[in-house]
Design brief:
By secondary structure, the chain is mainly beta. The chain contains five helices and 18 strands. The strands form three sheets. The protein has an eight-stranded antiparallel beta barrel with strand order 3-4-5-6-7-8-9-10. It has an eight-stranded antiparallel β-barrel with strand order 11-12-13-14-15-16-17-18. A hairpin with a 3-residue loop joins strand 1 and strand 2. The radius of gyration is 25 Å and the shape is elongated.
Length: about 325
């Protein structure tokens, strides 16, 4: 009887360990096979996702009944989110009743000769260093991509990986059935369109892109800003390592002069001021470039540039393009 109880406990411990590994890796696995998003990139602008070629590249989430049964049974996760990037790295997180476990690593995906099943090899670096292997299959229902996913830690070994031939539930000889099979839904790609989205996104400026007078007056040698879809912004300027944080709200409006937009900013940090100006976005290869000029109008420090006057028209053109800043958009 004692030997039988010991054997049962060993099986339970193995199930728990496998569940934890599969959960962590399943979250990790979905962040490498492809392209883009969030922090993180998902797809390059203009590139349309094709699951038959791109595999699991993109952003994925799992919750509710899509979470593997044994993850729920052993209180390991009630939801998961992962981003598989184009550079074959992944980042993500699993959650249990609000508690978060962050994940990261690298991955390699390979299309098998069995139906639409792919194999995946993951080298996880956080929260621990392990190697896992498994399979996944992506299907499409309407406009939604669904992924079925099963992996097993193979180094240090906790079991044997499922195979395309054996199908889902074949890990460790099929002893757990589909208990560790996770289902994910792909988060739709948002492809940036400067003609519609304007300034929305993450931007940075440094080196020769900094406005000449910012350098002359020791105001900034680099800048980073995020214009969010909810019409708020956050960012920072830097001068020789010193950082000044920025935040506020903004309104952008497309003008009838070429590709120039107007922008109205209500800054709340580091001080409460209103600024107005113009910007124009162009594309060079796969990179979006922005020309940007604003002036503080409340309390008034000058008059704002206009689309008709063009860049350098602030305060009657007295400063030329001295306050015209250039930014590069950070890829999503």
């Amino acid at each position: 009887m004692e030997k039988k109880l010991k054997k049962i406990m060993n099986v339970k411990n193995l199930i728990f360990t496998l569940a934890m590994v599969a959960l962590v890796c399943s979250a990790g696995m979905f962040s490498s096979c492809g392209s883009s998003d969030d922090d993180d990139e998902q797809e390059k602008p203009g590139v349309v996702y094709d699951h038959t070629k791109d595999g699991l590249v993109g952003k994925w989430y799992s919750s509710g009944s899509n979470v593997a049964p044994l993850f729920i049974q052993y209180a390991l996760a009630d939801s998961a989110y992962i981003v598989f990037k184009n550079d074959n790295t992944y980042v993500g997180a699993t959650f249990w009743q609000g508690a978060r476990t962050s994940l990261s690593g690298t991955y390699t995906q390979t299309k098998s000769s069995v139906g639409n099943i792919w194999t995946i090899l993951l080298h996880q670096t956080s929260p621990s260093s392990v190697t896992s292997e498994g399979i996944f299959e992506i299907t499409k229902s309407g406009d939604t991509y669904l992924m079925k996913y099963e992996i097993v830690q193979t180094e240090p070994a906790l079991g044997t990986a499922p195979t395309p031939e054996g199908g889902f539930g074949s890990s460790s000889g099929g002893v757990y059935g589909e208990g560790f099979v996770q289902k994910y839904i792909r988060i739709p790609d948002v492809v940036y369109d400067p003609t519609k989205d304007g300034i929305a996104g993450e931007w940075y400026s440094s080196g020769n892109n900094i406005a000449p007078l910012f350098i002359t007056y020791n105001l900034a040698d680099s800048a980073y800003i995020v214009f969010k879809n909810d019409n708020t912004y956050v960012g920072a300027t830097f001068w020789q390592g010193a950082r000044t944080n920025l935040s506020g709200t903004y309104i952008q409006t497309k003008s009838n002069v070429g590709n120039i937009w107007t922008i109205l900013l209500h800054q709340t940090l580091p001080s409460s001021v209103t600024s107005e100006g113009i910007f124009e976005i162009s594309k060079s290869g796969g990179t979006y470039l922005m020309k940007y000029e604003i002036v503080q109008t409340e309390p008034m420090l000058g008059t704002a540039p206009t689309p008709a006057g063009g860049f350098g028209s602030s305060s009657g053109g007295v400063y030329g393009e001295g306050f015209v800043q250039k930014y590069i958009r950070i890829m999503e």
